Amino acid sequence: MPEGMAKRAEAARVRAMFEAAGALAVEAAVLQPAELLLDLYGEDIRARAYVTSDALRGEQMLRPDFTVPVVQMHMQHGAEPARYTYSGEVFRRQEDDGNRANEYLQVGYEIFERDAPHEADAEVFALISSVLRGLPVRAATGDIGILMAAVEGLSTTERRKAALRRHIWRPRRFRALMERFSGRADVPASRVALLAAEDAFAEAGPAIGLRTRHEVEARIAALRKDEAAGPLSQGDVELMEAILAVQETLPNAVEQLSDIAVDMPAIADAVDGLAKRTRALAARGVDVAQLSFEASYGRASMEYYDGFVFGFYAEARADLPPVASGGRYDALTRQLGQGAEIPAVGGVVRPGLMLGLKEGTL
């Protein structure tokens, strides 16, 4: 059988398994409105997506994934609770990695349900784990919600918290902000001079760009206010570093994070949720004693996830993208729901990689 046909047959087999689990099969247009995706993720996504222009519809993107259109569809006319599955190509630009295709098949399973979110998390993980059974893969898990709760627990200004929340998915930028807010990093000399200037526009020259003088003045005022705020306490910095350093089996991670929650009560509810999810996973037959948990997992590639995150990777090919991945994205339903929201979690598999592992060609 030709390779393309074999991959489609594998995708159909996986989607049938998801349908057998109660999912409704849905479709999503290959061309998606670029404006919506840019509003959600900013200009960063433009570098990763294929963008084209339509005289009537404006900028369009070749579908970078299915989650956003499926959430839109559900928030407009979906029943509750709901389970969906889909399959088809997604398109993403790749820079230097020859092992990552820019067009590949994706099959997914999504749950929209208000009750028992931890059980829904466990259902998605266990179902995808069963789809991959017998393949040489390892699983990794994390929880972005714990990091978000930790940011909220910091004793600092709301502006600084907002900056840290925005960069949770950019680990290097997040660390740089923590260094600056804690006083560990020197403020650039140019900023020191700008904030000390009695008239910041005295030697500015003619205005260039789209920002008005009023907008620039507001930004300078905000920077001065931030500079006047005291540094993060050493205790807060150490607690955040302790959270980010957690890399254990799931039960041990729950224990470590529970200890940290004694000193940072803001994460207590999120850690309790992690414990409930651990029990739900165990109830579905997942060997949680061997399941890896990393507090930092998912921060570099899963921008719309805000809770449970997971991935399955080829054991002998660390250079390959995940064979399957997913997580919880409650906040995305709020952004797309026009006033409505519903807890949601899902995951996707790559049937091409599954087939390669199954046949030993990877």
Automatic annotation (TrEMBL):
UniProt key word Coiled coil: no
GO MF annotation list: glycosyltransferase activity; histidine-tRNA ligase activity
SUPFAM superfamilies hit by this protein: Class II aaRS and biotin synthetases
Position of the signal peptide: none
Alphabetized PROSITE patterns for the sequence: AA_TRNA_LIGASE_II (PS50862)
InterPro entries for this protein: aa-tRNA-synth_II, aa-tRNA-synth_II/BPL/LPL, HisRS-like_core, HisRS/HisZ
Annotated binding of L-histidine, by residue: D65, F66, T67, R92, Q106, E110, R299, Y304, Y305
GO terms under cellular component: cytoplasm
Keywords linked to the UniProt accession: Glycosyltransferase, Transferase
GO BP annotations listed: histidyl-tRNA aminoacylation
NCBIfam families xrefs: PRK12295.1-5 (NF008952)
Subunit composition and interactions: Homodimer.
Record's protein name: Histidine--tRNA ligase
Species: Lentibacter algarum
